[in-house]
Every structure is written in C-alpha cells, then in structure tokens.
Amino acid sequence: MGHSMTVRERIAWRAEKELQDGYYVNLGIGIPTLVANYISPNKQVVLQSENGLLGIGPYPTADQVDPDLINAGKETVTAISGATYFSSAESFAMIRGGHIDLAILGGMEVSEAGDLANWTIPGKMVKGMGGAMDLVHGAKRIVVIMDHVNKAGQPKILSTCSLPLTGKRVVNRIITDRAVIDVTNEGLLLVEVAAGFTVEEIREATEPSLIVSEHVRMEAY
C-alpha cells in the first residue's frame, strides 16, 4: 500500500480484502466505487451494478471514458472482458434473489445493532435510495465503509441511528479510516486498528462501548 494514498483510497484498499475469489459483488456509490481500483489480480471477482452491468472494471483513464457506460452512481466506468448488459429489472432480480455474495456500501450512520442509515439527510439534497434498501436485505453479506467521524468530529457509529434507516440489523462489518469493527450478538467487536490510532482513540470516537478482540490487529492498514 502506497503512503501517498488519500483517506478514501486507504479505506477502499482495506475493503478490497473482503472480496473473495468467485464472488459477485455490488459496490455502492461514494467510497465503495474506489474498491474496483484495488482488486487483486489473483482474485476473479465480478462487480454488479443496479443499472444493469455485470462485470465492472476499474475507473477509466481519460482515453477510456465512454459517456454511455456508467454505474448506478452515474459515474463513467470500464467493463471487463466477458461483461454483460441487461435491464435494471433483471439486476434487481439478482439482488433480491440472493445472488450477490457481498455488498460494500457507504454509510452516514451505523448503530451498535447493525442498523444502517445511508440514503437521506432530512432537508438536504442527496442522491436518494437507489438499490441500497434491496441490497441490505438481498446480499449475503453487508460491509459498510465510511469515515469514523463526521465533519464536526462526532461519531458515525452510534448507539441508535438518528437518520432515517436503510435497514435494521443488516450490517456485518464496518470499515473506517480508523478501525475495522464487527457487529456481533454480544456487541461491537474491534478487530483491527488502522496505523496512527490506538484502541483508546477508537473507543473515544465511537458512541457505543466496544469489545476489543483478544486477537485485535494493530496498525493493520
């Protein structure tokens, strides 16, 4: 991993480790789309988009841009060899039918119970629900990637979400710029701490209490 990475890129780089060979994966808008740039050549992973593209490649270089080839966030993308195009109805049938192994989504808030709020802030203009509500219930595993705190320095991992929910008890793992935290029946489990942070700093930046894994990895990314 290069030291010149931005915070967003570092989160995406760590999130790529969640992908396993043979997975069908949906990447949400925002930081999740960056994950496509870091997929290991040793893994065969197929990226799926709600607007009807199976086989998304990395972000295009300037000479690769095709304005007609976009993802669900209306960003231009590339397509890998063997990619296929179909209607959004078929794409949502894949999602609702349980054929997506992993969805990596952005988050505004996540609760200690695994509730996710990521689609709207009342009174502000945002892109909207998209496929998030379907993905949190249709994908086999949900990983949320986001900054650990908001622009005001307040925790985004909360005891209870204050924003309208995308889904209840749907998140399996949270990856932030500071830590990797699993949602378990016993509570939030701290499993990795990012370089430059301590366990105590993670606790202070997280509203609910954390269980620290006895195998917690320090400076994991």
Automatic annotation (TrEMBL):
MF GO annotations: CoA-transferase activity
Keyword tRNA-binding appears in the UniProt entry: no
InterPro entries in the cross-refs: 3-oxoacid_CoA-transf_B (IPR012791), CoA_trans_fam_I (IPR004165), CoA_transf_AS (IPR004164), NagB/RpiA_transferase-like (IPR037171)
Keywords, comma-separated and alphabetical: Transferase
SUPFAM superfamilies reported for this sequence: NagB/RpiA/CoA transferase-like
Superkingdom classification of source: Bacteria
Gene3D superfamilies documented for this protein: Glutaconate Coenzyme A-transferase
One Pfam assignment: CoA_trans
Keyword set includes Transferase: yes
Classification via PANTHER family: KETOACID-COENZYME A TRANSFERASE, SUCCINYL-COA:3-KETOACID COENZYME A TRANSFERASE SUBUNIT B-RELATED
Family, per entry: Belongs to the 3-oxoacid CoA-transferase subunit B family.
Protein name listed in UniProt: Probable succinyl-CoA:3-ketoacid coenzyme A transferase subunit B
Source organism (scientific name): Cohnella abietis
